[in-house]
Every structure is written in C-alpha cells, then in structure tokens.
Amino acid sequence: MTTRPWIVDDDLWALIEPLLPPWPERSPGPKPMADRLCLQGILYVLHQDVAWQLLPLELGFGSGQTCWRRLDRWQQTGVFDRLHRILLAELNAAGELDWTRACVDGSHVRARKGETRPVRRRSTGGRLAANTI
Q: Any transmembrane segments, and where (predicted)?
C-alpha cells in the first residue's frame, strides 16, 4: 500500500474518467478544478477523516467546498454506482472476489413476499371511506 492512498494512478483514472459527466462549456466563474485533483481531494478527506473545510490548499486539490460540490454532483449523476459495478466486474473476472462471503440484506435489496397490500388510510371525512370498511 502506498503512503499516499488518495493519489489516483493512471490505470484507475482510465476507468473513472469516462464515467464523469462533462463540464458545461459556458459555465460562469473561473476555470473549474481538474476532476482528477478533485477526486484526490475527496479521497484525502475520506482517508484522513478530516472536515471538508480542513482540506489543505497546499495539496493542490482545491478547496474542501469545491471537492464536496464535485462529490455531490458525481453522486447525483450515478458515477459511483457505475464505478462500483465496473470494479466488481473486473475483480470478478480476475478471480479476486470470494462470493462465498457475500451478504445481501434489506438495506440493499428490497424483499417482497407475495402481493402488495393496499395501505389502510384513516378517513378524513364524516363517513367511513371505502378503504376503512
């Protein structure tokens, strides 16, 4: 393991870069920070467990607020879900995943048993509603 695990190497960046949404051509304000640097800033904050506002500017990753906004933008566009699937597929193809230790729980997969039942609603009218009889 490297001493600076937040640095993204070229091979990993080649997987991530095509997943990122393009930056608008005519965006207001200064030229945006490079996506790769923002990703490294995000990884630094997560690895070092520091607050966004404590991201050191000397590292060249931009401000914590810039990195946080980029993280939010990427999360909303589904970048990390797609990256997760790609990395799982590559690890599986390389035989690096042990599926005997896989676990599925209700927080990730919705369990449905039988047919769905309509929810009973409390009547707000003076007489009984059809769904409360």
A: none
In order of 34, 50, 67, 92, 94, the CA distances from 43 in angstroms are 14, 11, 10, 24, 25
| Residues 6+ away with beta carbon under 8 Å from 133 | none
Low-confidence ranges of the chain (pLDDT < 50): none
Burial of 131 (0-12, 13-18, 19+ CB in 10 A): exposed
CA dihedral for 58, 63, 68, 70, sign (positive or negative): negative
- pTM for the full model? 0.71
Q: Mention every residue, 6+ apart, whose C-beta is less than 8 A from residue 4.
A: none
131 touches 120 (CB < 8 A) = yes
